[in-house]
Amino acid sequence: MRTATFTHFGWSVFVLLNLNNKRVSWAARFSVVGPSHPIITYVGDEVMLPAFLSPELNAQGFDIKWTTPKSSSPVLLYQNNSIINRIESYTGRTVFSWENLKYGNVSLIIRNVRVSDGDLYKCLVFSEQWEDETRINLIVEVLGSHPSISMISTQDQKTTLECSAEKWNPQPEIIWRDMNGEDMTSQSTVATQEDAEGLLTVSSVIPVKKEFNVFACLLRSKAPKTDWPSRLIIYSFSPGVSVWLVLFCVLLAVCVAVTPLLAIQWRKMKEKNTRYDTIAELLPVWFLCKEIEWRRICSSAADVTFDPETASPWLIVSENGKEVRHVDTR
């Protein structure tokens, strides 16, 4: 009987210990949560790569490592309550808050951002019983130079226009339009070249016909920032045609477009001046008519004498009977 009781007690203790171990194991699990979209920043700015533990746990006793595919060494390593920068280019430019670890905040801040900082960052968090990671894509955007357009004649006597610009990152969108506003981008080819700073020199080439036309090249950043258009117009014309002739044609076209507007404005001003001239001519006649009317009235005046006995009670007649004035008798 005692053996059975002891055996039952032993199984109970074993089951309780096993359940307790499982409860601790599940409680120690966590996820590292980061943004689902890329983080966009600009050269010279400060940017935070946000990463948090879910559920919120005190991570001060965990090991934390930030890495990129560019290097086998970590960008930052937090281990045994110490912060270590293993990559020299990040030394003095990273901020990692030991205080925020108490709230499960394992975010990394990068100061004075460089073009080379753009990469896919990985944040790994290790505890004694569990580990997890998140990945954050950092895009460093640089608005490069204004584009320029040049004309190129190939060996097979074909004419092309090249729109090029330097110091861009990432690769911008290049849009071509002709003088009618039609999109000609589908006819172009784009090439890029990376310089020593990691910035891009971009060029787009489009074939043109041997006839007069106007083209605009627009460079637009693919990152969510206000468009930076550059409408650089070039006139494509057949060989042998003088540049001055092209300019003359352009000026002539402008004059033709402006002449109707000037004619309409001149006609309006002429009509207004004619109206004013007519009024100016009629004013002396009008004043003369008024003067004649006044003299006629004065010449028709009669000598009248008011009788105080028969005058209205609201009128006071003078002694000579020639003047009256109104009074309020109320």
TrEMBL record:
Keywords tagged on the record: Disulfide bond, Glycoprotein, Immunoglobulin domain, Membrane, Signal, Transmembrane, Transmembrane helix
Superkingdom, taxonomy of origin: Eukaryota
A UniProt-annotated Pfam family: PRY
Position of the signal peptide: 1-27
Transmembrane segments: 241-264
Keyword Disulfide bond tagged: yes
InterPro entries to which the protein is assigned, alphabetical: B30.2/SPRY_sf (IPR043136), BTN3A2-like_Ig-C (IPR053896), Butyrophylin_SPRY (IPR003879), ConA-like_dom_sf (IPR013320), Ig-like_dom (IPR007110), Ig-like_dom_sf (IPR036179), Ig-like_fold (IPR013783), Ig_sub (IPR003599)
Protein's recorded name: Ig-like domain-containing protein
Protein localization: Membrane
Gene field: LOC114666719
PROSITE patterns, sorted: IG_LIKE (PS50835)
GO biological process terms, semicolon-separated: regulation of cytokine production; regulation of leukocyte cell-cell adhesion; regulation of T cell activation; T cell activation; T cell receptor signaling pathway
Chain ranges of the Ig-like domain: 147-217
One GO CC term, this protein: external side of plasma membrane
Single annotated GO MF: signaling receptor binding
Keyword Transcription regulation attributed: no
Protein family membership: Belongs to the SKINT family.
